[in-house]
Amino acid sequence: MKKKLKFPPLFTAVFFLFCFGMSLLLLVLPKQTFSETEKRNLAAFPKFSFAALADGSFTRDFETFLSDQTPLRRFFVSLNAYADLALGNNGGNGVYRGRDGWLLEKPFARDNHFADNTGRIVRFAQKTTVPCTVMLVPTKSSVYTDKLPKNHLRYDDFKTIEAAQTACEKSGLRFVNIGERFLAEKDRTALYYKTDHHWTSAGAFIAYAALGETLGYEPTAADAYSVEKTPNFYGTSYARSGYTLTKPDSLEVWRSKQTGGRATVTIVENGKETKADNLFFADRLNTGDPYTVFLDGNHALETIETGAGGGRLLVIKDSFAHCLVPFLAEHFSEIVTVDLRYYKKPVTALMSETAFDQVLFVYGADTFAENKIVLR
Length: 376
Known about the structure:
Strand content: 15-25%
Strand order of the largest sheet: 6-5-14-12-13-11-9-10
Number of domains: 2
Number of helices: 13
Structural class: alpha/beta
Shape: globular
Low-confidence stretches: none
Radius of gyration: 24 Å
């Protein structure tokens, strides 16, 4: 006859006291709508209906609510991340804890949207007379491989980008590949943030210089910009990883000494229009997502009127373009940015309304691989 497991009374009491305390805190503490640490919206209590209960959506949404609103959630996420690390599971949350304080995203899946998205861009470009240029930015993990832990998955960024380049150039598209430049500069320049997946303004400046010959401008010298640093910046890699003992970066803003970033910026989101008089939104530096200092973060459509010479540029992009656009603004009278994750109207309709001189596609390799681009 098997013996029943017996737990010491003290253990049982502590367990139930812990469960009761956590439940009580969940009830009485105010519910958060946004996590500044994780840089994302948190789930609210789901709306109840018998239909939602029957199809299981209420239960799933309620579990998400409990996960997002659990008291001391960040502490437990961090505890779990470091426990996994101690057991040899580096990167359990999709981010490796690398050398010298680097947090590096795991490679994107090999079954990705790269080829399909490239094909969509090619077909789009073939239907317009406006010259199109493509730039895909390799992930920091594929550039700073010396910072990766000893055991890591394989990165195919450079091969995948080269395949996209071949497909584009065969169809007459211009493609600017910055991979070799980045590999040559990585030991001299901090091209990416240690705690964020984005490139730094220094990295974006190298890309801007590389684009000059193709887009038809003479790049401004680096010493024409003042560099403003904001300490204690924790980025998206930090937010995902759970490695809370990681030291922060300093966020850099390169501001033109001549213009100071002055421009008329019109943001259109959900049918509402707001205006600003600068490319840099300085008040965002004091929020939980300081990276939105660049163009106020992700928006469906932004129009930037610079007063500079040059033509009109349409930038179809993800967030990698945000600290690149201020450099481009030195050379174009108007820049319109479109984020296809949020912009649901046909781009062709936008192009029929505005006479653009050039179109530039700027995407991080990971976003380009993981998200289907709907381009009409």
